[in-house]
Amino acid sequence: MEEFSTRQNKISRLIQKELADYFQKESRNYFRGKIISVTIVRVTRDLGIARIYLSIFPNDGSGEILDQIVLMSRQIRGTLGKRVGKQLRIIPELEFYIDDSLDYIKNINNLLNK
Fold it and tell me: Is pLDDT of 2 > 70?
């Protein structure tokens, strides 16, 4: 298990908070009203890359939504830069992934209840 520094954790929380706010405000305009939650943000040791895990509800069509978010990642990074530019000198590159841990838990529950 990788150890994260205090700085990495602070930056992760800051990015998570700002992106959660962004997706809450923009989901109606860009993402067909889907609810997008930022579940985890992990920043690399050099602070150059932020891996963002998203939970999309309802999850039908979540692959297309993720593709759309990936296409918009430069725009999202620019918006993030405007919001946190005073706190961060360099805005990390953003990598987006689907967080399927809830589906995994649901599947395990279904298997246990059979």
Answer: no
Give this prediction's pTM.
Answer: 0.84
Distance CA(6)–CA(28), nearest Å, equals 34
Q: What is the mean pLDDT of the chain?
A: 88
- Whether 38 and 16 have beta carbons less than 8 Å apart is answered as yes
Reduce the DSSP state of residue 37 to 3 states and report it: strand
**Cα gap 46→67, rounded to integer Å:** 26
Please state whether beta strands 49-57 and 35-43 pair in parallel, antiparallel, or not at all (unpaired).
antiparallel
- Alpha-carbon torsion angle 61, 27, 96, 94, nearest 10: 160
Q: Does domain 6-112 have CATH number 3.30.300.20?
A: yes
Q: What's the pLDDT tens digit per position in 33-66?
A: 788 999 999 999 999 999 999 998 887 888 899 9
In order of 2, 27, 58, 96, 111, the CA distances from 93 in angstroms are 20, 21, 27, 10, 38
